[in-house]
Amino acid sequence: xxxxxxxxxxxxxxxxxxxxxxxxxxxxxxxxxxxxxxxxxxxxxxxxxxxxxxxxxxxxxxxxxxxxxxxxxxxxxxxxxxxxxxxxxxxxxxxxxxxxxxxxxxxxxxxxxxxxxxxxxxxxxxxxxxxxxxxxxxxxxxxxxxxxxxxxxxxxxxxxxxxxxxxxxxxxxxxxxxxxxxxxxxxxxxxxxxxxxxxxxxxxxxxxxxxxxxxxxxxxxxxxxxxxxxxxxxxxxxxxxxxxxxxxxxxxxxxxxxxxxxxxxxxxxxxxxxxxxxxxxxxxxxxxxxxxxxxxxxxxxxxxxxxxxxxxxxxxxxxxxxxxxxxxxxxxxxxxxxxxxxxxxxxxxxxxxxxxxxxxxxxxxxxxxxxxxxxxxxxxxxxxxxxxxxxxxxxxxxxxxxxxxxxx
Length: 408
Ligand code: UTP
Hints:
CATH superfamily of the largest domain: Spore Coat Polysaccharide Biosynthesis Protein SpsA, Chain A
Shape: globular
Distance between the termini: 56 Å
Number of strands: 19
Bound molecules: uridine 5'-triphosphate
Number of domains: 2
Strand content: 15-25%
Strand order of the largest sheet: 4-3-2-10-14-11-19
């Protein structure tokens, strides 16, 4: 595209500022910038005016799931079934590690954060230990795929190599890189992070499967004869990975997907709640729930919408392939986005300054015909590290880990 066409295109979309540094760029850098601009999905920018229209609007009903007592009563059966699925090589795990951890304020990959008190204990280390626990119980290795982003891929790989994958065999670990999307300021202007570079950020954890396909990993999954994929976040240091009970219960009850859930600490807890929307499983965010839904109770006094997701899902691979044809909704998320100011300074804001566009794994659940809501004991399996201080922070995770006898 020549300068004139570029200028016309940017004018049409009200983004002429992107050309401010163009004339001083080298030929290669001009090419780099133009190729990024050509890839911009202009529809995304209109979404910032329509944020509320993204909210779910179907008919919601509670989803009865499998509760702790029920799991307890059949636990040996589920465990054996889950272990068998793992031992016959039907289960893979996907670690979502492409996020930027802006709330935590870490510069590099969140998994590299040391949460030890008297020694080094890395988030990645705890995650690998959790996977090792299952691998040891099943006496086999579980293929692990790690999704990174272009921003943290190299650092993640070299960190894990340096630590010898915390004891996991590297032949069973595969990395792939997720897609990126542009970010905008509150007025809808695309942000730049360098004169030849739009401010691009990872496109949310919902792109994990499509990015896997783009990375040509579907044939790998088929070659390994994988049937189930356990997808999980990097920041819940207590979670069980490829949990045989969860896998066994999902298979035994003929579900196509499963979600680990915890009982909400209080009706207004800020978690996504697994329920039914128009008869299909759906995760409704806390800000999408009406007061009526938040407070509705069953005859026995329990909350009707009582169980929140923890970002640990099980999906059947053949069904994931079926739903690839559907587009996931794009969420407009307010974030702190580093950018190049008009006078050419690189600014790292301390407060949110614009929007990123993200697809979320929780929206995949609605594309499945059913989903097992599998209850876990919160304090045993849920220690997320999201914020620098306060709730769901390093210190709350440390306390929970120490309660479980971890030496930090
Ligand atoms: P979060 O939604 O908590 O995002 O991610 P985050 O990037 O870690 O943190 P904030 O919101 O910027 O503070 C939940 C999980 O999804 C992964 C994260 O790495 C984490 O494991 N994720 C998130 C991705 O893999 N890619 C993304 O684009 C976003």
